[in-house]
Design a protein that fits this description.
heterotetramer; A: 219 residues; alpha/beta; Glutaconate Coenzyme A-transferase; 4 helices; C: alpha/beta; nine-stranded mixed sheet; three-stranded antiparallel sheet; 12 strands
Amino acid sequence: MEKQNKRDMICRRIASELKDGDYCNLGIGLPTGVADHIPSDMRVYFQSENGILGAGPRPESGMEDPDLINAGGGPITAIPGASYFDSFWSFSMIRGGHVDMTVLGALQVDQEGSIANWMIPGKLVPGIGGAMDLVSGARQVVAAMEHTDKYGKSKILKKCNLPLTGHRVLTMIVTDMAAIKVTDEGLVLVDVAEGFTVEDVIKATDADLIIPDTVGLFN
Amino acid sequence: MEKQNKRDMICRRIASELKDGDYCNLGIGLPTGVADHIPSDMRVYFQSENGILGAGPRPESGMEDPDLINAGGGPITAIPGASYFDSFWSFSMIRGGHVDMTVLGALQVDQEGSIANWMIPGKLVPGIGGAMDLVSGARQVVAAMEHTDKYGKSKILKKCNLPLTGHRVLTMIVTDMAAIKVTDEGLVLVDVAEGFTVEDVIKATDADLIIPDTVGLFN
Amino acid sequence: MPQIITGKQAAMMLRDNDRIMVSGFLVSGCPEYLMECIVATDVKNLHLVGISTDYDDRGVGKLITAEKVKSLQVSHIGTNKTTQALYKSGKLDIEFVPQGILMERIRAAGAGLGGIFSPVGVGTDVAEGKETLEENGRKFILERPIRARVSFIKAKTADKLGNLVYSKMSRNSNPVMAMGSEITIVEVDEIVETGEIDPEKVVTPGIFVDYIVRKGE
Amino acid sequence: MPQIITGKQAAMMLRDNDRIMVSGFLVSGCPEYLMECIVATDVKNLHLVGISTDYDDRGVGKLITAEKVKSLQVSHIGTNKTTQALYKSGKLDIEFVPQGILMERIRAAGAGLGGIFSPVGVGTDVAEGKETLEENGRKFILERPIRARVSFIKAKTADKLGNLVYSKMSRNSNPVMAMGSEITIVEVDEIVETGEIDPEKVVTPGIFVDYIVRKGE
């Protein structure tokens, strides 16, 4: 499958977890795409941690405003009914459990529900940003990621070995191969992506997976 | 001296401690009068802890607004350049040392700089209100009070015996008999009120007073 | 996204022994219509969080006078004779909380904090039994979050997404109480269409609001 | 009450080894003109507090590129290659602070708190060496206030009393940074007469502002 198709599939599967009226924060990169897959009869309000509730799509070229940007610095718009606030209140909102879902990219996740996405020691050190606050506070914390790295190695581990962004915080993991719920008992395989079997997913996953009697399909 | 004259004298002496451009919070009762004694060439901005910076005088009769009131519930106005804010930010402002002076009434004060003004066990229990925050945070904390109670007993004690509002927080005490600075060494008699001698003040004061070589006069 | 309901529906959400917050400072910013709706129900033994208890016959004082309240976390009761009498006769439990620290503790609950180290009341009864922290010779005491099940607040205007704007100094405890409870119910003077409030002017974003009641309805 | 000064005068207030805060999120809300004024001085070895270091040639990144900064408390450096290179080569000390907790720590300083118990980063490197609190099975870590000597912030409009209004999402770290330092200097697009800003619309009251600089002056 092409990369964009994969990404669309992941984002569509995550969008299906949202309910009408939900408030949602999308991390930079892959998660941004979730906004494009909200059914047209559903209202989901996007929060950007730098200070808006009611973030809208990218403006037309020439209409960009440097004071209307998402967490990645990309231009956005404000939908009718939006509000602006400072970062102090924005993160109060996030940490206090008022945001229904946050979707974040991940370098690694593990079967305890931990996530690592802020540094690779000695190589990549972008910093924490708002991710640690988001995973500690949002009601649902979803990792959106590729199932394996470029060498085909599982990014869903028994235990993360990169510095953690959050310890036991995830509620769901969605990849190009599987949709996985994080429960107190462990990782439960909910759906496999079209083109893969349950066996394929188990083989590509380092973490232990709980396989229920029925596993769904997504595409 | 008549009661109103006494009050005016106390408030005038306190007003003389303010500088042009200062931000000041006045407690209910006696301290409210300080606003009437600011020299006309000086700008002092009054903060009311229920949510305004730039509180102005009582409106004309018939112009009262129930959403423009001071900490005692009395009607006020907003001067040009005023701002409204919620109580969370109002007390952040107060506790963070951004308000130059607070003036509070007192039941008792003592030579350690402590103040008691929120309850008399078994008799009077109005509650703490904003007083504890104010005494902990304002840069100058001034007690405005009568020197003695109705039985002629000193209200400036060696040690307060009523429940404290603040422990070692006062910077100044102004009464109908004296203006006293609170220092690390103890209470320093700065001025005596017209009509009294230093000896009168010492006699009427339970607390130890430090008497400097020159003591001023106020009226 | 909030729902628009009646005052009666709002009041019926309460259960005996509920913990509630009611906004306002000496009636300004108090949802008085909702207080009347609560008085009209059978609910009892409420635990009430608020800045003051207003006056005997006005504001949140109506709940006290109607004997709906069994305990209070409050900063001031000096304007309400009924509250003082009930307290003195032992019929009302009261925890006095310094006004700014009441705001901090409610905000801590709403913002997911475990507590704050406060400089207020060090060396007074308020500090009794509380953990302390010392830094550069200054002492602080640990103040814990205050949560409730339902917050009743008051705004001037809401849009249909629950974005709120207040009148002048009436915002006082409203913004923090909108965060500190599981359910937030706002009484407003008017409801406008979504988009009618300038995003710069919104004081409380709609995410904190669950139910909207138009005053008198 | 604030004074109106020039950008040069503002920059000259800095001393070597000063601790400063600079507002903004990826340039939005950053006092870029003041950054240029600082770059033009001889000041060095600054300790900088900010959300990110913006870009190499824009925003607070200008201070990094001009090698004015020796240490940072920051949440994100991913958009600035110079910061990353200096960090990797050991020329820049960095404490990474989660973005919301950075805001909390600055606000704690500005609001007179001794610290807050935060749920963020429990079980990660951020929690190392910090005191903990446990309540109802949730863990929190003690985060201390972050103070500086000077805050450089950016607003759209100031009146002559220093009341500030921001443009859209540019308010980000501005309101808390206005409180967290001994001295607050604001760069604005325009200065209006006192009374021209509606008291309801003021976001940062003038009490927090010490100096006002009109952009370019």
